[in-house]
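Data card: per-record layout.
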Amino acid sequence: SLFLVLTLVSVFVCGFGKRIPILSFDEGYSQLFGDDNLVLHRDGKAVHLSLNERTGSGFVSQDLYLHGYFSASIKLPADYTAGVVVAFYMSNGDMFEKNHDEIDFEFLGNIRGKDWRIQTNIYGNGSTSVGREERYNLWFDPADDFHQYTILWTDSQIIFYIDNIPIREFKRTAAMGGDFPSKPMSLYATIWDGSDWATNGGKYRVN
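The structure for this 207-residue chain is written out next.
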């Protein structure tokens, strides 16, 4: 099995003027899939997600959010993780199948001895013409320790942060029209087998 450990997300909803305390899992989240592959720790304030030969695992927020600051402390699986997709993201694809919004942090697996890369994605109103994938080499090993991954989403911009360092800024422009994320979204964290495409286009698969 491969293991992902995630400290539950802290959320600051823009415009409310106050920080929402970190909720326990049962107070703020629901399991999506994975049965026993999701294990709670620290009184429900941390989640251990795993991937085995049968299934991955994941969870979703019980609330929808329209803008905010969403941050999670994540430690990734170590060693050979080719084909393993780890995602911390927002989406409303379950409600808007043809014109959904999405904001993603994604890890697409790693080959032993290679630099880790992280991918960010943005979809607005189902459009694939703006905000698509951008990948970055990390300056650390995300499997050695916990690191903070943050999405700031306002009505005018989206900023991705790692350990409070901005790595990508995506500004809304008039030319985008409606193709900027503007509908309420749920918050997700998942680990799953993406061998067919994740690492070097599917060249390296889950072991």
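Known properties of this structure: Residues 27 and 62 are 8 Å apart (CA to CA). The chain has one domain: 2-202.

See the next section for split statistics.
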